[in-house]
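U., I forgot to send this yesterday:
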Amino acid sequence: MHAAKVEQSHHGQKHDDVFLCIPPLYHTGAKMHWFGSLISGGKGILLKGTDPASIIKTVSDEKCTIVWLLVPWVQDILDAIDAGKIRLEDYELSQWRLMHIGAQPVPPSLINRWRKVFPKHKYDTNYGLSESIGPGCVHLGVGNIDKVGAIGIPGYGWKVKILDDEGRPITDGSVGELAVKGPGVMTCYYKDPKATAEVLHDGWLSTGDMARQDEQGFIYLVDRKKDVIISGGENIYPVQVEDFLRAHPSIKDAAVIGLPDQRLGEIAAAIIELKEGFSCTEEEIEKFCLDLPRYKRPRRVIFAEIPRNPTGKIEKPKLRQIYRAENLVAMQTNS
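Result:
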């Protein structure tokens, strides 16, 4: 019930709203967002498949007003529009009032592209976990479009804090682990007291996500704690580099992982998926990355397809396995 109240508070669903649900229903981001419409008696549409034309056609045919998307689907829709495969004038989309997105870090460049194509849309980013009954414990808010790039502020009924390695609150804007507290926090992991004790502390849930908070209280997701690359003693947060790379006009998707290096411990490797019909060289990527601090620049560039799971998240473990980085720590300690 609290998840439904959170959605109502954030997005004001009404009886006339039509929610388009695309993700699999086992994904909390799908059904929990719809719950805001459920308690107002709003209609929900289930769509199987993520073909860009099918999404746009369904929005038009079913008069959808609210659509929750994942990053790769937004990319595919915009690329199809740019390529002329979707002509917006062929569809009735004037009723579409809200596009919100979540389940993973959202590149600001992607939302800026979306707003140019759909300037009348309200936009929101949502953050949550299965352990917090899904999305909404942090959200950007439709009135904070100037803060695109942030995951937002505490959601309705929620509290947040950033913690250092000792579990102490960080207040100076430094990067630490995000913790959340609210009515949606789980009671425990089923029959796993050890795992429960690792993440629950006096009602606070340690999320495993690294984040920072600015002076206005907006939270910026930096990366998963386990995905941080330590290169020559410097912390590299892959999401920051991935967001930078996705601003390149030829790049469709990017993933950054750590690869073993005898001198630096590990180096950042960028796996890059190009847009259909586009070409790019390693030298062009290296030149583009000159605007990054030297230690953040990828030391290796690999052009390949980026694997994502059904909920749109990059499959980093699969990439580490493909490029033999899955046993990185063991390789370093045994060398």
